[in-house]
Give the backbone structure.
Amino acid sequence: MVLYFLYRLHEEKGNIDFAKDYKRVLLKEFPQSDYAKLIKDPDYAEEMAQANSLLNTNYEKAHQYYLQSQFDACVSLCERVNKNSPNNSLYPNFDFLKTMAKGLGMTKNNYINALTLIVEKYPKHQVSESAKEILAYLKLEELDKTALSVGDSPYLEKPKAGHYFILLFKEFDLEVSIAKSTLSNYHAEYYRLDRLNVSDLLFDEHTHMITVREFPNKNKAMAYYKAFVEGDVRGVFGDDYLIFVIASPNFPTFFKNRDVEGYKKTFQEYYLNKQ
């Protein structure tokens, strides 16, 4: 939440009056939020983190399987977690990830039916919006393949879908372990309750890709992007790095084709030009 981020930022910089103002507004307007509870009880985040540690680890592992096209392993892990813990807080996320992993082996009609079921089962959850975005893509494809994107871009504008923050940097500029720990510490300070996962993959022979996920929509992802650009955390990466956000349904196309130059144009058009 922006109010909590501003509260912590001003508190760290010694702007006590500003920090108190943001704290007061947060506690007044959102008294039952996790961020309000965190202000009242500093141990609250640690308690939540311990309770969700194994769950988050399993989701991270399942998502890595998906990104690496190990779809059977992804499906198996998602099914096992939800079967063993039917009341877990990430149940819809595992269910949706399982559906996407199964999607490549389905007929288009069966995939549409499976995604429609996700929308019906979780109408108020973020996975419903992501499923709707993919459904829109599939249905548009049936009507007119040329209508899927702007110009020659293979990417769709999906503001309500889940989003990832992507950071690309050269391995000889910074060790990936330092990069990940830097972001993890940053999240512990400012994004404790957002359940952001940090993962890394080798993008090419000399380039690492760090993925921060998952933001519920474009606006949340861009807020993180702007905070990164304006904050001190970027300093460890020097000057030779590339950052952007991308809608989760667009990520497979980007990653499969290693389409840095093509997506840079899309990011400029869909995100930076529309701020």
